[in-house]
## 1
Amino acid sequence: MTRIIGLDFGSKTVGVAVSDPLGITAQGVEIIRRESENKLRRTLARIEALIDEYQAESIVLGFPKNMNNTIGERAEKTLTFKEMLERRTGLPVALWDERLTTVEANRTLMESKVRREKRKEFVDKLAAVYILQGYLDSLGRMEDGQN
């Protein structure tokens, strides 16, 4: 099995997670801070460096559908980012429904007694972990013939 990079793409930050070499667990790596929503060159360069560092062979990108399953502006921007990632890295990029991952990440941080002002530092990275872990779990179910 090879490593997979998980991304939580936002307007100001990109949360990054990586799988273990066996593809069982996801660990948070970092939060890439974006200077401007329309400037992605540095963000893409950092993601490329992480792909090299972890020798990742694919990417999972959180896909922010609306709760009623429609695609809004944020999801449109995510689709554009997906195309940029595929072109720039040459790696396959899978979309993963990320609805409620940020809510779940915030809940986990609250239950862990992380203070509100500190949560912002962790929430995107933790959301990336949830996105990647959900994807890894689905792969495991497929291999087990449960899907």
Note: The longest strand covers residues 26-33.
## 2
Amino acid sequence: MAGYEVSLERTATRWKQKLRKFFGPWGVFFQGFLEHPVMVGSIIPSSRFTIRKMLGPVDWGRCRLFVEYGPGVGTFCRPVLDKLRRDGTLIVIDTNKLFIDYLNRTISDSRFIAVHGSAKDVEEIIRAHGHDQADYILSGLPFSTLPEGLGPCIAAATHRAIRPGGAFLTYQFSKSAQNLTEQYFDRVDSGFELLNILPCRLAWGWKDTE
């Protein structure tokens, strides 16, 4: 019986590999959603319209460290790297090792660092890579479905991790991320993008200069 189960597991692994190869990043993203649905906000990556609007307020000239929670298959990573200064750093954090392994295989930019870990540990992760604070932190995490207490923990750590004048950028189908951001940040701007599956709520939480 044990041998039969091992055989089934090997067969399933081979099929997963074939599906990922056939569908490319979409296959990896969908598999990640199936394995960790509570931690992935959607089965479909964000649209280019959402990306453009979300990143619009970023002052790229001053951005030395950009952090992203839940990068998935890198939908935002490449646009961020395209705009990031040459001496800047992009750190992405994800609890799903499938996504981290995929990103490390497909992004070779020396400014890019992929960390298998939790967003609640963002301060430790930033310090471990030689930085004091981030300029901007982007999140597509589904705050409405995270385990109880984890959302506020992440939001509080994020506020401490961002420099004065920086911002916490969130996109989600519900208003949960914006509501949570408003509890910790001095000023919150909001937006909406219809050209996304599903239509998406955007928020920019600004940390006032001291």
Note: DSSP finds eight helices and seven strands in the chain.
## 3
Amino acid sequence: MREFTKRFIIDSIENLELSKPIRYERYYINNELRIQKKDNKYEKEILDKDNNVIEKVEISENEFCELKKKSYSKIIRNSYLYLKDSRVSIKEYLDKYEGLYRVEVKFKSEKEENEYVKECWMEKEITYSPLAFDKDLSKLSTEEFKKELISLKGENK
């Protein structure tokens, strides 16, 4: 099933009305398996080829730690809800991907997606860039990430 989501980049979360953040610590084991610590909950997620979660199960801290050793990449981020529009969430990336703030806007239909006018504080749409999904982001080297981020931010000027 097609997901109706647009993704945008922003420079900062200052002056936005946001929920309390949820901390995600994600590890990618392979293209179909990722694990995450979401606040204090440990989860294993099976992904399809389109990066949709097809199965999610809670796991123990021990299983999480064992699987983490097999990972090729980690992503740490805070996730916020935008309090003025329930369709909008914002991901603030830390560690290797610091400097990336990704806005995700989810829609119920293609019509709603096509009619959406972005907020004035949202910058360039990145829906089709390597920064749009954690799975793609996890495969970028630090240099590739920085180059992509600078390129996208440069296009905003």
Note: Residues 5-156 form a domain with the Hypothetical Protein Pfu-838710-001 fold (CATH 2.40.320.10).
